[in-house]
Amino acid sequence: xxxxxxxxxxxxxxxxxxxxxxxxxxxxxxxxxxxxxxxxxxxxxxxxxxxxxxxxxxxxxxxxxxxxxxxxxxxxxxxxxxxxxxxxxxxxxxxxxxxxxxxxxxxxxxxxxxxxxxxxxxxxxxxxxxxxxxxxxxxxxxxxxxxxxxxxxxxxxxxxxxxxxxxxxxxxxxxxxxxxxxxxxxxxxxxxxxxxxxxxxxxxxxxxxxxxxxxxxxxxxxxxxxxxxxxxxxxxxxxxxxxxxxxxxxxxxxxxxxxxxxxxxxxxxxxxxxxxxxxxxxxxxxxxxxxxxxxxxxxxxxxxxxxxxxxxxxxxxxxxxxxxxxxxxxxxxxxxx
Length: 337
Hints:
Elements: E1 21-25, H1 54-68, E2 72-76, H2 86-94, E3 101-106, H3 111-121, E4 125-129, H4 135-142, H5 147-159, E5 165-171, H6 180-190, E6 193-198, H7 216-226, E7 229-232, E8 241-245, E9 252-256, E10 269-272, E11 277-279, E12 288-289, H8 290-294, H9 300-312, H10 332-335
Parallel strand pairs: 1-2, 1-10, 2-3, 3-4, 4-5, 5-6, 6-9
Antiparallel strand pairs: 7-8, 8-9, 10-11, 11-12
Helix pairs in contact: 1-2, 1-9, 2-3, 3-5
């Protein structure tokens, strides 16, 4: 398996940030209907022939890894495990460079069936969305009665050998903010890293409001009073502020202050949507059509220059809370988390 040399092109924007983290949405389809993401009736799915093939995804990834210095890959959706043969795509990407860090964000419901194959294919890490530990509340949030299957999927991931498991909790005031300590206890007992994510305005039903956001500092204050924590300092840019327990308990907690104190100034991410469009920010109002190049016979060099030019135009930040903020026309599931 090759180890690739230094990149020929660095994906730098006008603010000096370097994009080396690629989020790939492999599908817009999902088997949940989470209230902060999709309407109960679902959304119109992208036609299958408009979704990038595994070969197209792998080609773009190869170009960005070998020629542009991308080092981290995150497979997302929709729900990535509903994409048939996802373990095959994982293996194709892992085969590009043995040094790649390949992660996946999933709702976990299919992990019992898929975890072992994903591990064998070269997946490094799992981020599992879990917004509540209460069955009735889970049913209301995800609009599916599936808590036990998700918890079993997390167990299956451990059995398959995944040691770096993160649980993602979208915290909404008056909905599930009373479970912060329950999740902190789970982290201490099971050794997971639980990441609390501020509720962002990317929902289809329009239920987001500033009052529904629980600020990250409030979450950490609640945890620290019960289980004292101290910060963990990361060497690479990351959206989460991470903390370990001062008493040495396993696991840890993190907060993603996407609304109250976003990490836009050091953002190193770009996103490839399921239909092959590049987004330089989760809240971008503009997309760059990579698929047109792929299916139009463009060379690798032309794709490099197209992506380089797109990243150069990357937004300074998402502007949530500012007077000129404009909500994107797509929901989280259509963009890729």
